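User: If only I could read backbone structure tokens as easily as an amino acid sequence. Underneath my words sits a plain record pairing an amino acid chain with its backbone structure tokens. This is the protein in question:
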Amino acid sequence: MKAYQTNARLITENQNPLTDRIDTLSTVGILRLINREDAHVAACVRRAVPDIARAVDMIAEAFRNGGRLFYVGAGTSGRLGILDASECPPTFGTKPSMVQGIIAGGRKAVFRAIEGAEDRDGSGEISAHGVSSGDVVVGIAACGKTRFVRTALGEARKRRSRTVLVASNPPAKDDPAVDVRISVIVGPEVIAGSTRMKAGTAAKVVLNMLTTASMVKIGKTYGNLMVDLTAKSLKLRDRAARIVMHLTGLSRPKAEVYLKRAKGNAKVATVMARRGVGYKDALALLKNAGGFLRGVLACPRARTGPGTGPRRPARQPCASTRTARDSEQNVGVRPEATRWGKTDC
């Protein structure tokens, strides 16, 4: 049999020698093989963290200045962008316009593959969304050369937007010009060319990191609690109540009263309870603290009324006086490291 022709430029198109007999395996064997390949993704993403961090800093800066984040992709890449964008409002209480996904082929392509859509010109979508210099456009393309993504990024740069490319193949001379290139080289796929697999998983992880870290940096969380969530479902209303109970020491009925007064926002309800202020004053305090709940509660120390004291002393340092304990080098041992022993990630 003639050797499978390799593609030095597009590693994801090459044949994976570790899976070339996958069709001879049992069901369990196939699944173990796929799982073994997927296990390498986290390490590949870890090597790209410095570039991901540069992108996060750009996105967070744009958010602080009222800018938006746009994901652009075709096929799986486009759907991943839409998925990540759609999760931001319920998780972080953002407006739907703050993070948006653009997919080649439009709405129909979300539910059904539209072959050839990736070869269209994406510049019109950038124009239609009114992308400007205050926005960030993230192109997602496993190969790094999808025409829809390349042309969209090109138009974004013409509009002086900051741009990012997330790809699973090495940089090349004909890459689109971007401010940050995030290369997560996961190697050949289990099924040659099926970039919905490892490359898709890697892209999903990167997008999770981009929005989550950016939201943390603009004050959308308190520790690891999503205090800005939009509580519009039973599950999220319960979560919001538990967050307020945890941060104030209030009973559930009292926490729910504060949440109602705060229009369902756990962050505002916490400030109202801990500082003994009304809704508008709580909003003003948060605005003065740049949206950071920690800043309101710790600088100066929050006043507490009867029954509103925290369950543990609120002796958190102000943002301006944080010590080395808050640095990434001293965050502490991850729970899984102690529960399960050493991990590869």
